[in-house]
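in:
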């Protein structure tokens, strides 16, 4: 497990964008990246295979109806709730 910039532990480092020796990026590292993210509250499957990438400088809005997963998405990004074991939420490559 590797710490990310916010002090959380990443269980899915191998899913993030690759880095060259010394941490140099092989290609521009996304600011935020979700890969196959699934989040559950008990038996309730809230986020189902969510994939998206946000590059530095992009302006993004998260829109949706009631109970569609907006808050859970933000909580997953912040580490308040954990995604599934083999899912990746990467912040600047970590």
């Amino acid at each position: 497990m590797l710490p990310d910039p916010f002090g959380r532990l990443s269980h899915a480092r191998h899913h993030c964008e690759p880095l060259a020796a010394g941490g140099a990026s092989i290609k521009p590292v996304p600011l935020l990246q979700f890969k196959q993210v699934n989040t559950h509250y008990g038996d309730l499957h809230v986020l189902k295979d969510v994939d998206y990438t946000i590059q530095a400088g992009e302006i993004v809005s998260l829109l949706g109806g009631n109970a569609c997963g907006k808050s859970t998405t933000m909580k997953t990004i912040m580490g308040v709730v954990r995604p599934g074991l083999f899912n990746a939420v990467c912040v600047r490559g970590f």
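note: The first strand starts at residue 2 and ends at 3.
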